[in-house]
Specification:
Number of strands of chain A: 0
Structural class of chain A: mainly alpha
Radius of gyration of chain A: 17 Å
Strand content of chain A: under 5%
Oligomer: homodimer
Chain lengths: ~90, ~90
């Protein structure tokens, strides 16, 4: 009984992870294009107004969704760190 | 022209982030239940066989989706760290 309940929860987690991976792949496709775009038009790699907007928005959405807003902000920073790594690689390759 | 293209990409990123936040909220609801379940049946908080399965699966799915498998593994570790923090809080509260 204990294990059956656990298996069911884990199957849901696995489904959600599959969806998360697909969305992240799509998100990095978009940020990769942003990187190319910024390199092409010589725009600065970071944009603090945009980041402030994203943090505020994700925190608000998280509260509504029942997710810890501090975690959402950590998650965004985790993604941005990876995006900057990609943008630096684009800049180096050009 | 440069800015219009950027705005369109950012609108897509914002849509994807909204979906990611909703899925993460759902994922933590499931892992919260796993934590309660493990506490109730005195199961160990970590399960290395389960984690190894998740890493292998997410890496495979990432390759297929065009996402860096190393990033996918970092992402899973980022989530697991947060889940363990939640489980410890559940264990303390019981």
């Amino acid at each position: 009984m204990a294990v059956a309940g656990l298996d069911e929860l884990r199957a849901s987690i696995d489904n959600l992870d599959a969806a998360l991976i697909r969305l992240l792949a799509e998100r990095f496709k978009a940020t990769q294009k942003v990187g190319l775009h910024k390199a092409k038009y010589k725009l600065p790699p970071t944009d603090s107004a945009r980041e402030a907007y994203q943090i505020r928005r994700l925190r608000d959405m998280s509260s509504e969704a029942g997710l810890d807003p501090d975690f959402a902000e950590k998650f965004l920073n985790f993604l941005i760190k990876e995006v900057i790594r990609h943008h630096e690689a684009i800049a180096r390759s050009q």
